[in-house]
Amino acid sequence: MSQRFLVTGATGRTGGYTVAELRRQGHEVRALVHRADERSARLAADGVEIVVGDLRDLDAVSRATKGIDAAYFVYPIEPGLLDATAVMLQAAEENGVRALVTMSQISARRDAGSNAARQHWLSERLLDRLPGAVTHLRPTFFAEWLHFFADHAAGQLRLPFADGRHAPVAAEDQGRLIAAILADPRPHAGKTYTLHGPVELDHHQIAAAVSRTLGRPFDYVPISIDEFRADLARHGHNPHRIQHLANVAVDYRNGIFAGTNDVIRTVTGVEPLTVEAFVARNREQFAVR
Known about the structure:
single chain, 289 residues, alpha/beta, Rossmann fold, seven-stranded parallel sheet, three-stranded mixed sheet
């Protein structure tokens, strides 16, 4: 049976894959986008209803949630998460939204060193007050980090993660999971799922997997957290994100991002991508420019 869903962050990674999967299943999808641009135009061309507005704008979010069965809520690593959470909660209650799937962080906890991670923990607690079914997702590092933070010309991944380990998880696998929970939220009500890829690796092993797939050298270069902080500032990241990512590095070294599980496979019936499969599928993102 066709349902109507709201997807925030629909022009981003997890939101975009969620929209595609819901549309593939024949559902109606409304996207709340920050601005009308070529990305939202592509969504509209695919039959997605577009609402333009800020997640911190109650009127805009109220319009977006009207007549919606369930919604996916995601907010970037930017200031304003708690304002956006309060707005989403109020709008969802007013409009009788029956379920929410929220994108949190694996490092979210009350005593996190990262301001953003603490705010995600608070956001979860606020959204737990929705009368409907609420499911929190806490992913480890996205596989997309491998090209986002890579120096492709040098064939290097310069990160401050020492010998810590995690199982990279691709956005498309998360999007498939989000769509599955939105379509049938009741079994997942009140659950918090950590999300992992299928194989836990350290960054030397990750870089070796990328290198094998690309057929050219690709190395992990461990750096200090201070060097990482300076690199982020040099590339124009805002102070909120820099503070978060520097503390994420500490958490990573302490094992917070480690582990594997079968949540994605169990809920979706599809095994999540390995590092090799992700790189092969997104080879153009690793091209030397």
